[in-house]
Amino acid sequence: MVRGEATVIQEFFRNEALSKPSFYYDIQVDAVEDIASIFWADGIMQLDYSLFDNVISFDTTYRTNNQYRPLAAFLGFDNHRKSVLFGAALLYDETAATFDWFFITFLKCMSNKKPQTIYIDQATALLMSVSNIFQGVFHGICSWYMSENAKKNLGSRANNAFFDELTNLISNVDDESDFDYNWDQMMKNCFNGRPISDFTWLVQTHRNRMHWSSAWVKSHFTAGLKTTSLSESSNAFLRGFLQPDHSIVLFFSHFNIMVQRMRDNHADLDFKAAKTRTKNNYPNSQLMRSVVKKYTSASFAFIHRQYDLSFKYYYEECRGDFWMSSY
C-alpha cells in the first residue's frame, strides 16, 4: 500500500462499524504488523447468508489493482436466482495459509454456520484449505474454472473437440462406471491415446473427478449450480464499477456503490414478483398449484423445468425391485 492507506483503511472500517452495528471486519497482519488481508461483511450480507446459504461459490478471479491482488468473494443465489454477496476480502496472496485465515474468519462472522455445498477453483492450495476448514461440506469444482485452466495448461489441445468431450463428462455421464470409458474416449480422440501422466493438469483433474463430474455430483444438493455463472456475472458487474488503477480508498467507495446497486436490483425484482402472476403450465397438478404461489417467477421456472423432465421417465417393477428407465 502507498503511504497513509493503511491508516485510511482502518479508519474506514471503524466508521462502518460505528454506523452499522452489525458490520463485521477483520484484518490479517504479517510478521511486521503490516496489513496483509482484509475481510468484511455488513449486516445485510450476514442476513442474506442466513437465508441463502445452502449452496455458495467462492471466487478470486477478479483482480483489483495493478499488483494483481485478488478480490475474494462468497456468492450465492437469492430467491430470484440472481447473485447475492455474502462477504468479501482483499487478499495478499492465494496460499493455503491465507485461505485458511479467510475461511475461518468468514465462518466466525456467520456464527460458524457452514453451507451444504461450496463451489471453488481447482487450485491445489484452495482444495487443501476448503477440505481442512469446510469439513463435511461437499466442494464442487466449477466447470468454468476448469475450462479456463484447460486453456492455460493444454494450449492448442484445448480445442472444440476437447471441450465437447469435457462437457459430456461434466454434465451427461451419470454413472460412475461409465466415467472411465468416456474419459478413455476423450484421451483417445483428443490426445491420441497418450498416457494421462503426460499431462499434469489432466492427472489432477482426473484425481478430483468426484468434485466435478455429474456421476458423483448428482448425489449432492447444488441448487442447479454446475458452473461459475455466479462468478462470471458478478465479475462482469464488478468491471462496471472497479478499475485496476483505483486507489484502495476509491476501491471501497466504488465497491459500496456496486453492492447498493445489487440490492436495488433485488428490490426491483421483489416488487415485480409481487405484481406478476407466475405462469403454470400444469394447472391440474396439485403439486404445481401448491408451489406456484410460494416461489418467485425465476425459482418456479427452475422447478417447472424439472417437472417437465420428470415426464421422460417411467418405472417398472422387476423381481421386487423398482428401477427407473427413460423413454
From TrEMBL:
A Pfam family matched in the record: MULE
Family annotation (InterPro entries): MULE_transposase_dom
This protein's name: MULE transposase domain-containing protein
Record domain MULE transposase: where: 55-148
